[in-house]
Amino acid sequence: MNHYPIFTHLENRPVLLVGAGTVAERKAAALLRAGAQVRVVAERLNPLFSQWLDEGKIVYLGGQFDEDFLNDVFLAVAATDNRSLNEQVFRAAEAKGKFCNTVDTADLCSFIVPAVIDRSPMKIAVSSGGTAPVLARKWRQMIETLIPLESGKMAEIAGRWRQRVKAEISGTENRRRFWENLFDSRFATLAAQNNTAAAEAELVTQLDSFQAAKGEVVLVGAGPGDPGLLTIHALQAIQAADVVFYDALVSDGIMAMVRQDAEKISVGKRAGNHHVQQETTNRLLVEHALAGRRVVRLKGGDPFVFGRGGEEAQVLKQAGIPYRIVPGVTAALGATAYAGIPLTHRDCAQSALFVTGHSKHDGEQPDWRTLALGNQTLVIYMGTLQASLIAEKLIEYGRSENTPVAVISNGTLPQQQVRTGRLKNLPELAAEAPRPALMVIGEVAALGGELGWFQNDKVE
Ligand code: SAH
Predict the structure, then answer these.
(1) Where is the signal peptide (predicted)?
(2) Containing domain of residue 18, as a range?
(3) Is the N or the C terminus of the chain less surrounded, counting Cβ atoms within 10 Å?
(4) Is the residue at 141 inside a domain?
(5) What is the model's pLDDT at position 364?
(6) Separation of 311 CA from ligand 1 center, angstroms?
């Protein structure tokens, strides 16, 4: 079930609760904490409900459910142990367009109640969409341990100062930066110590000295696809970004980790199909940084390995824009590791060469003599279209036609495929391999069969 998460404001709003047993008691207590006016229908009130009635906290409507009770309530909760009564309440609520939650019956709910981590005014709601409440509670426990008990205090103070900060700092990005810096500073310690006065003094100091930040560009390597291969720096950068320029090689799983509100701009290009010219990308990076934004240029693999990161850094340097480079796991490392192919091996490969099958200047020839040497592993990026030429030249310059090869498609992703064979068959293997694909040539390629461990990814 694909629920739309909302937090409702129940203060002083009437809510109908049908049932007054133990389960209803928990529901009533939560509703009362949220400030709702709880109206109870139940044949009998248990002692706690009677006490609430005496204290004037709830209204008692008697033992008989009447559809008209739903007319002016905000929402309803059916919490009896009588399934047909619960169903009657739910159907009536549906007919009247009222939200209704039926305890422990997912198909009789138009809203469900999540497990909550409460650091008021901060709250985290966890839901399994009604499928596995126990797992949702387990998540809750895990998250509880991560979030300091006092962190609600920071939100409380921030709430009081929000308007003033808004008046003094212009621009949503500048304000976001102000709050981020504040929450990472000594302010957090003081808030945790419940020292409100000192925390507010710290806030004022930082507000007075706040300067609109200069933009910067972070060239971030996203790795070959598996989001688990992002570095901590990469994760932090994509979660702090105002704008992310990404290319086609960046996997959906990684894009899902980018800060939700960041602007995401595709500058994807695949060999032979340049969607956005490199010059345009360069210009956009500079423009956005000059506007004071935190720019991330997110690239598949490593930015400095066949990724034009060098060209982009040169442009930034020339424009005087501060930049950082976050390395990533390049395809030659990631895809081979997931295919169980070691790049070097004492028995048969003393070195590994990373080469591109695609050069900027057409007609430029690689040094085939060096590439064809034995005892080395060749890893070829962007090479599947040139596989026939590559195989032919390597054989011509002396590499055995029986040298093992592997073509790894979508390395590290769930749809990874590995095709293995001999150098003389490389053209066929490459032709049928989905892209992106990496070609590995050398004795180590044969080890994939023995050492492959990732999924059932072999294609004969
Ligand atoms: N900067 C990137 C390489 C960009 S060039 C890096 O460091 O990995 C693009 C080429 O990389 C593709 O043509 C393919 O040969 C290779 N490649 C990138 N991701 C890959 C993946 N997940 N599986 C196999 N090959 C990949």
Answers:
(1) none
(2) 14-113
(3) C
(4) no
(5) 73
(6) 18
Domain-ending residue, one of 168, 184, 209: 209
Buried b (16+ CB within 10 A) or exposed e, 352-386: bbbbebbeeeeeeeeeeeebbeeebbbbbbbbbeb
Tens digit of each residue's pLDDT (9 = 90 or more) over 172-204: 888 988 998 999 899 999 998 889 999 999 999
| Residue 124 in domain | no
Is the C-beta atom of 384 inside 6 A of ligand 1? no
Are 187 and 288 in a shared domain?
no
One of 96, 138, 264, 269 is an active-site residue; which one?
269
Q: Which of 445, 318, 434 is nearest to 376 (CA)?
A: 445
Predicted pLDDT at 360: 59
> Would you place residue 277 in the very low, low, confident or very high pLDDT band (cuts 50, 70, 90)?
confident
* 347 has catalytic annotation: no
pLDDT of 273 higher than 60: no
203 is a domain residue: yes
Provide the CATH number for the domain around residue 191.
Answer: 1.10.8
**CA–centroid distance, residue 335 to ligand 1 (Å):** 9
Whether 96 is a known active-site residue: answer: no
Nearest in space to 334 (alpha carbons), one of 424, 436, 214? 436
Ligand 1 centroid to Cα of residue 409, in Å, is 9
Q: Would you say 439 is a known binding-site residue? A: no
Domain count, the chain: 4
With cut-offs at 50, 70 and 90, classify the pLDDT of residue 271.
very low
- Between CA 65 and CA 68 the distance in angstroms is 9
Q: Which among 186, 209, 232 is the end of a domain?
A: 209
Is 300 a known ligand-binding residue? Answer: yes
- Check if 412 has its Cβ closer than 6 Å to any atom of ligand 1: yes
Q: Which amino acid is located at 300 in the chain?
A: G
**Is 22 annotated to bind ligand?**
yes
Among protein residues, the one with the nearest Cα to ligand 1's atom 24 is 437
In the predicted model, is pLDDT for residue 269 greater than 80? Answer: no
* The token pair that represents 89 in the structure block: 């309440």
User: Distance, CA 284 to ligand 1 centroid (Å)?
Assistant: 24
pLDDT of 268 reads 67
Residue 166: the pLDDT is: 94
Q: Are residues 320 and 336 in the same domain?
A: no
Asked if 103 and 17 touch (Cβ cutoff 8 Å), the reply is no
Q: Which of 306, 359, 459 to mutate to test the pocket of ligand 1 (most atoms within 8 A of CB)?
A: 306
Q: What is the pLDDT of residue 75?
A: 97
Q: Are residues 260 and 356 in the same domain?
A: no
Q: Are residues 443 and 337 located together in one domain of the fold?
A: yes
What average pLDDT does the chain have?
92
Does the beta carbon of 309 sit less than 6 angstroms from any atom of ligand 1? no
> Does residue 437 line the site of ligand 1, with CB under 6 A?
yes
* Beta strands in 34-74, from DSSP E residues, in sequence order: 37-41, 58-60
